Amino acid sequence: MNGKKNIPAGKRLLELVRNNAVPIMFIIICAIFIPMAGFSPSYLLNEIVTRMGRNLFLVLCLLFPIMAGMGLNFAMTLGAMGAEIAVILVADWQIWGIPGVVLAMILSIPFSALLGFICGTLQNMAKGREMITSYIINFFINGWYQLIVLYVMGAVIPIIHASIMLPRGYGIRNTVSLLNMRQCLDDLLAIRVAGVKIPVFTFLLVGLLCLFIVWFRRTKLGQDMRAVGQDMEVAKAAGINVDRTRIISVVMSTVCAGFGMVIYLQNIGNLPTYTGHAQIGMFCIAALLVGGASVEKAGIGNAFLGVILFHMMFIVAPGAGAFITGDSMVGEYFRVFLSYGVITLALIMYEAKKRMAKSKAGQELAAAQVKKEDA
Amino acid sequence: MSEKKDYNYNSPSKFNDEMKTIPPARWPTDLEKAQMGTMTAMVSSFGLPRIIISGFLLVLFILTPFVGVDLPTQITNIINRFSWNAVLVLAMVPMIHAGCGLNFGLPLAIICGLLGGTLSIQLGFTGPMSFLMAVLIATPFAVILGGGYGLLLNRIKGGEMMIATYVGFSVMSFFCMMWLLLPYSSPTMVYGLSGNGLRPTISLDGFYNQVLAKILHIKIGNIEIPTGSLLVFALLAFLMWAFLHTKTGTAMTAVGSNPAFARAAGINVDRTRMLSVIMSTWLGAMGILMYQQGFGFIQLYNAPNNLTMPTVAAILIGGASVNKASIPNVIIGTILFQGIVTMTPTVMNSAIHMDMSEVIRIIVSQGMILYALTRKTEGVK
After folding, report:
1. Which residues of A touch B152 (CB under 8 A)?
2. Which whole-number Å values give the CA distances from A69 to A105, B1, B39, in the listed order?
3. Is position B11 within any domain?
4. What ipTM did this prediction achieve?
């Protein structure tokens, strides 16, 4: 890249646009939609800050598997499910406020770690198809989650309080109220700037995770992960235990997702037992990709930018849809379409690039062979 | 199972040490089966999950009389549901054969069928004619959208399944908007009050509800057989079987099992794959029309998504793998899967007064897909 300085400014700008096509597209969409939706700036800012506190932790946990070259971890939902089981138990024990949140986080670790381990092992059995496997694992474990929460809890696992149980005597209600836990992390050290509430403590936690990620990249394990992500064969030759490293990266991701889910739930203030985790994976992945990440490369900056842009679009799309077509449902479908679309686009770009690199390597190999034969 | 034994028979001895580090990457050959003993051979060729599922269904069947469930009604239900779903499952075959993997992009094909169905009603056709027109109208959509989809899948070989999933989602959510925005006006389909935007569920009474099922309809005691639907499936399945034995069909199988060999043999890999995707899309469109014809309703918006996983799971339960599928796989898989779907709620409800069918359905179908994905397969990469 030493020739970069000689490239004319126009070409460099074009390169910049091409490399950041998705974020730029979203900035344009937001710029068009915000005036149409007609929200006040302070409302928008408030919403964005709230949603950043709610989602950033979850989005950041996607970075570990990307580091290990396993692509987008659709199975981060597993961590969310582990956290939900922990939250249900904590809610049943009536431990509220900060202690409740901390206990839920601690309790979620064994669940998420176990699920993450299962997921990592299965992904190792399906090398080259990690993403679709993680996507299916997500549904598979969801079946088991429903089995446990709907039939085992209350029947086998003792649930003390009838308030969270279904009237039939076993199984958990569709919504578990977390009113006594609501926003207790967000309110800690919260400050108000011009009517915008900033949940300082939540941001501190997010900052802590960012620092951890930065530090982790420099450790031996982090380096191993990147090596595995670059080329599994080379890493194996270098004496790295590839399978183990990959499992660790997935477990880290799931455990972090568990913490993230607890933060998410204390912000929302209730637990939608059977639907809470369903869309989490999709929205977090879409947010990360909107921030300019790709399947093999993502950073902390992508997560921040992505959450801001994606949720901005999410807030304003229904209003803008109603403004254009007179039907707010169109806007709602439009935002879902954009989330799916951006993931599709990222996946296509990733696979096309991978294939191009492969054919290039093949050509180089052929050329080298021809050279050899000539000699 | 005797994994080590496999190698000693088949691989040249000098490669033995190397080979031992690689797990078996194929179904056992006939020779190996004979040497492994019939029992283990059956387990390995039929697959453990399949045996569990068949066993589970068998237990359900045995339980029926004891828990007071009417067996003929159950059998009628299974046959009916088979006739609704079989063509959708058949749609998986061409893409699996051409090495494009499991068609998680089924919503795309379903959308083509939905366009055919809704446009046929919009244009004022009724009765059996509306079904015929729905098929005719769906065909060009299937060819065009399927062609585009095939073009895309040719550019991302190796990552088909994940991208297919999201292409399906994207197209489906795009058409969620379109169902609201397209200028449909038939009063049977649009919202009553505002007069625009299609309803999520459209009744097919007076259109093509049961048109095929009623042809040659047989009733023996309490068992009813929708002969017409079964015949249409049989015809399509036969055509598919015949196609797979033509020159193009054989080429398709070659592309699926070994693309490098196929290219060396002078087969146009991209064109063959494209053809398979178009066939799959058209069969999917046919499949959803058959489904609606039996079910009696058109379901729009997010409904296409609900059919993808059951369909993929069905063909895998029938014995297909990520790159191998046959017509018997389709038939066995659909019967087994639909058997579980229909039998579990009634039998379990009567037996233990607890409806766990939904959970069991999720675990069985997703577990089956997961099993297929984590198996090592030859060729596909």
Report:
1. 348
2. 27, 33, 41
3. no
4. 0.83
